[in-house]
Design brief:
alpha/beta; TIM Barrel; Jelly Rolls; five-stranded parallel beta sheet; NodB homology domain-containing protein; Glyco_hydro/deAcase_b/a-brl
Length: 429
């Protein structure tokens, strides 16, 4: 009787299905979002947060605050929530179509601009997923720890013989492979398959590429909030068996590299006395102490320079309204750098200082009209306070018809201290 019972138990045990084999490596999924689109914030971010998952948002610094795109404040909120901000060029340029110098401007200056806004920018994504050897080298030279492409992993309709996952760490961190971009035609089953095919083939890294998060928004590169929610509902419990969601930085790691400007040094038509080394009456030559409104402030020529021996400091100790800023002199042509109508210019200044989070420190720029009148032209994006020097780079719109010269400088519109040095002006047309 006991023997028959033991045999029955043994037979039942043998008939039970075998547990699935464990993957040789863990499976890691990264949720990456390209282009810094507004619906990623309004529709996508709440879904990620509700599932306790962190994404990587590759933003275009030159489009922050423009129609349909993230504002700088929204990007700051995303970063404050533990998500990653990555670079995606100044203007979403198709990089291999540009010469090497132009590629460096697009990649390096975008990163410098984002660093200047206070973001920890360590990883990059190529617009359109396009890169060549020159582009990859530029990404590395600009201080990125990785650069993500599009494609290279098994996807429906293409790359059938490709791997099912990227290596951890990638063999080529300057071109991280992915499945094809998620589109309106990508089904929930296909999203799940990108993960399970990696799990079933030894694990690895699966970076997924999203753009718009919207329903019926008229763009092919979109996932509906319902599909994204259903996918994350399915993905969330898989963490118990070893499939986890991580940001690109959590996978790649590495230190935050210093910013590397891509804009070349100014030519003969650039800023005069750019490092503020000469001064008359305490005011740097070819500059002026600008501002408006009511405040108690003091200007000081200081030795705490970015390069050379001198920089200029302004400190506001009581404030009602307006701002204070050191700007290139707005004269009739002796100092004011000339510009060409229709051309686009890259303005730069190094800065450091302390001010409250609500003080919107920005670069302001002006042009001189054909009638010789100086006119306010625009502002750059808001800058974060920093104890060490950072470079603020701003790309102007095309110079208006009839404009003959330009003036610019970083404005302090509230209580705090601002030091500026090393001004640059480059025609990037």
């Amino acid at each position: 009787m006991i023997l028959r019972l033991l045999c029955s138990v043994l037979l039942a045990t043998l008939l039970l299905p075998a547990p699935p084999a464990a993957a040789a490596d863990p499976t890691i999924v990264s949720l990456t979002f390209d282009d810094g689109l507004a619906d990623q914030y309004t529709n996508g971010l709440p879904i990620l947060d509700a599932h306790g998952m962190k994404g990587t948002f590759y933003v275009i610094s030159g489009r922050l605050g423009t129609s349909g795109n993230l504002t700088q404040a929204q990007a700051t909120t995303i970063a404050a929530g533990g998500h990653e901000i990555g670079g995606h060029t100044l203007t979403h340029a198709d990089l291999p179509t540009l010469n090497p110098a132009q590629q460096r401007v697009q990649i390096c200056d975008d990163r410098v601009a984002l660093l200047g806004m206070g973001f920890t920018v360590k990883n990059f994504a190529y617009p359109f997923g396009n890169a060549d050897a020159t582009t990859e080298q530029a990404s590395d030279d600009c201080g990125y720890n990785s650069a993500r492409g599009v494609g290279g992993l098994v996807s429906p309709g293409g790359c059938g013989g490709c791997p099912t996952a990227e290596d951890i760490p990638p063999v080529d961190p300057e071109y991280v492979a992915t499945p094809s971009s998620i589109k309106t035609t990508t089904t929930l089953a296909q999203l799940k398959n990108y993960v399970t095919q990696a799990e079933n083939n030894g694990g690895g890294w699966v970076p997924l590429v999203f753009h718009h998060v919207c329903a019926s928004c008229g763009d092919d590169y979109a996932v509906t909030p319902a599909t994204l929610t259903a996918f994350l509902d399915w993905l969330q419990p898989r963490a118990a068996s070893g499939t986890t969601v991580k940001t690109v930085d959590q996978v790649i790691g590495g230190p935050l590299q210093p910013g590397v400007p891509g804009t070349p040094p100014p030519g003969p038509a650039g800023v005069q006395n750019p490092s503020l080394e000469t001064a008359t009456g305490g005011v740097p030559d070819c500059f002026q102490l600008g501002g408006w409104g009511t405040s108690t402030h003091a200007w000081t020529r200081v030795a705490d320079a970015h390069t050379g021996s001198w920089a200029e400091q302004v400190k506001i100790t009581a404030y009602t309204d307006g701002d204070r800023k050191l700007v290139t002199r707005q004269d009739a042509g002796t100092c004011a750098p000339p510009v060409t109508p229709g051309h686009v210019y890259r303005l730069g200044a190094w800065y450091k200082g302390t001010w409250a989070a609500g003080v919107k420190v920005k670069m302001s720029y002006y042009y001189r009209s054909a009638a010789g009148i100086w006119t306010f032209w625009g502002n750059g994006l808001q800058l974060a306070a920093t104890a060490s020097y950072a470079q603020n780079l701003v790309t102007t719109p095309p110079v208006p018809a009839g404009a003959t010269a330009i003036s610019f400088g970083i404005a302090l519109p509230g209580l705090g201290t601002l030091i500026t040095d090393d001004f640059t002006l480059v025609d990037i047309t």
